[in-house]
UniProtKB/TrEMBL annotation:
Provenance organism: Nicotiana attenuata (Coyote tobacco)
Keyword Secreted belongs to the record: yes
Annotated GO MF terms: polygalacturonase activity
Lineage: Eukaryota, Viridiplantae, Streptophyta, Embryophyta, Tracheophyta
Protein's recorded name: Polygalacturonase
Primary location group: secreted
Length: 398
C-alpha cells in the first residue's frame, strides 16, 4: 500500500510539474559550512527530501563553504530514477577521534541502495586521515569509535556516476564500491601522502561489475586501483598513478577463500615512481580464478616492480606457509608496456608450485629498461606458462 501511495504521488507530481527538477540546497536545511559546526543533521534532512522527490532532484552543496560531516548514511532506495549530488563546496571529516562514532560498515560517507546516483563537482572531500594513520594494530580501531573508515563507500548503487571529485587524505580507502553494476567514474583526483598506510584510491569488490574508470589521477600510499574478488567487466583507461602501489588485481584468496575475477581491461595508463606497475596478487591456499585480464599501452617511469604476478602474496612480513591450493591465474595479456625501473628484475612471474600454475600468459612488445644505463633488466619465472614476442628483457623462462 505504501509503494502504491508513493507511486501515485510521483505520477501526480510528474503530471503537474513535468520537466521541473527540484534543487535542495543543504544550507536551506541549516547547514552552516564554516568547517566547525557539524552539518550532518542538515545533510540528513536534505537527503530525506531528495530521496523522496520523484523528478530527478539535485542536492546542492554550494561553493565557498566547508561542511564538517560526522559519519553519515545516505540510504536508498529513492523514488526518482536518478539523483544528483552537486559538490561545489568542500567537505571535511572530523579531526577528533571521539567524533567518529557509529560508522556504518566502517565508512565516513556511506551510500547504500541508491540507483541512478550521480555525484559531480569540483569540491574537495577531505578524510582527515592523518588522525588515523599512526594507529597501530590490524583492526585500526580506537576504543569507543569505529574502525579506520573508508572515505566514500557505495554499496548496492547501480548506475552510479562519479565525476570531477577531488578526494584527499582518507584514513583508509578513498572510494570503495561493493555489489554495484554499471559504474562510471571519470576525471577524479585522489591524493594522499606516499607513506600513508592503506590509502587505496579506488577499491572494487564483492559482485561489482560493468565498471569504467576513466581519465583520473591517483597519488596514494597504496594501490591506485584495486580489483578484488567478485569483479568482472572492468575497464580502466587514461589513468595517471604515482606515487602508490600501482594497479592491482587482488589480493585474492585470503584465508583459503574462493575468489573470482575476470574480463579486466587496463589500457593507456601512466605509472610514475610507484612501488608496482601492473600486479596480480593471490594468497596461498585460496581457490577460484583470475582470468581474461589485459594490460595494454602502459607507460612506466622509475617503477620498482613493473610487471608482477605473485601467487605467494603474504602482506608484509607474515610467515605464510605453502598450501596445496591457489587461485588459478590464466589468460593474461601484456602488450605495449614500456618504461624504466630501478630494479634488476623487471618482470617477475612467481606462480604457484602446484597444479594451479599460471597459464596462457602472453607478452607482446615489452620494453622495460633500467634507470641506470650500464645495468640490464631481466625476467624471472616460477611455473609460468605462455608465450613472449618482442620483449625486453627477454622472457626465456616461460
Amino acid at each position: 500500500q505504501d509503494r502504491v501511495s508513493i507511486f501515485l504521488v510521483c505520477v501526480t507530481s510528474f503530471i503537474l510539474h513535468k520537466g521541473l527538477a527540484a534543487t535542495f540546497d543543504v544550507t536551506d536545511y541549516g547547514a552552516i559550512g564554516d568547517g566547525v559546526t557539524d552539518d550532518s543533521q542538515a545533510f540528513q534532512q536534505a537527503w530525506l527530501d531528495v530521496c523522496y522527490d520523484c523528478e530527478n532532484p539535485t542536492m546542492n552543496l554550494p561553493s565557498e563553504k566547508l561542511f564538517l560531516l560526522s559519519p553519515i548514511i545516505f540510504q536508498g532506495p529513492c523514488n526518482s530514477p536518478t539523483i544528483n549530488i552537486q559538490v561545489l563546496g568542500n567537505i571535511t571529516a572530523p579531526q577528533n577521534l571521539t567524533e567518529w562514532v557509529g560508522c556504518e560498515n566502517d565508512s565516513w560517507l556511506y551510500f547504500t541502495g541508491i540507483s541512478g546516483l550521480i555525484i559531480n563537482g569540483t569540491g574537495q572531500i577531505n578524510g582527515q586521515g592523518a588522525t588515523w594513520w599512526n594507529i597501530s594494530g590490524s583492526a585500526h580501531k580506537v576504543s569507543g569509535t569505529c574502525h579506520k573508515p573508508t572515505a566514500m563507500h557505495f554499496n548496492f548503487c547501480n548506475d552510479l556516476q562519479l565525476s570531477g571529485l577531488n578526494l584527499v587524505n582518507s584514513s583508509r580507502n578513498h572510494i570503495s564500491i561493493t555489489f554495484s553494476t554499471r559504474v562510471n567514474i571519470s576525471n577524479i583526483t585522489i591524493t594522499a601522502p606516499e607513506d600513508s598506510p592503506n590509502t587505496d584510491g579506488i577499491d572494487l569488490s564483492m559482485s561489482t561489475t560493468q565498471v569504467q574508470i576513466l581519465n583520473s589521477t591517483f597519488q596514494t600510499g597504496d594501490d591506485c586501483i584495486s580489483i578484488n574478488t567478485g569483479c568482472s567487466d572492468i575497464n580502466i583507461t587514461g589513468i595517471s598513478c604515482g606515487p602508490g602501489h600501482g594497479i592491482s588485481v587482488g589480493s585474492l584468496g585470503f584465508n583459503e577463500t574462493f575468489a573470482a575475477v575476470e574480463n579486466i581491461n587496463v589500457t593507456n595508463c601512466t605509472l610514475q615512481g610507484t612501488q608496482n606497475g601492473v600486479r596480480i596478487k593471490t594468497w596461498q591456499g585460496g581457490m577460484g580464478y583470475a582470468r581474461f585480464i589485459n594490460f595494454e599501452n602502459i607507460n612506466l617511469t622509475n617503477v620498482r616492480h613493473p610487471i608482477i604476478i605473485d601467487q605467494f602474496y603474504c602482506n608484509g612480513a607474515h610467515n605464510c606457509g605453502i598450501e596445496p591450493n591457489a587461485v588459478q591465474v590464466s589468460n593474461v595479456t601484456y602488450k605495449d608496456i614500456f618504461g624504466t625501473t630501478p630494479s634488476k628484475i623487471a618482470i617477475n612471474l612467481n606462480c604457484s608450485d602446484n597444479c594451479t600454475a599460471c597459464t596462457n600468459l602472453v607478452f607482446e612488445q615489452i620494453n622495460i629498461t633500467s634507470v641506470l644505463p650500464e645495468k640490464q633488466t631481466r625476467a624471472a619465472c616460477n611455473n609460468a606458462h605462455g608465450q613472449a614476442n618482442s620483449t625486453l628483457p627477454p622472457i626465456t623462462c616461460l
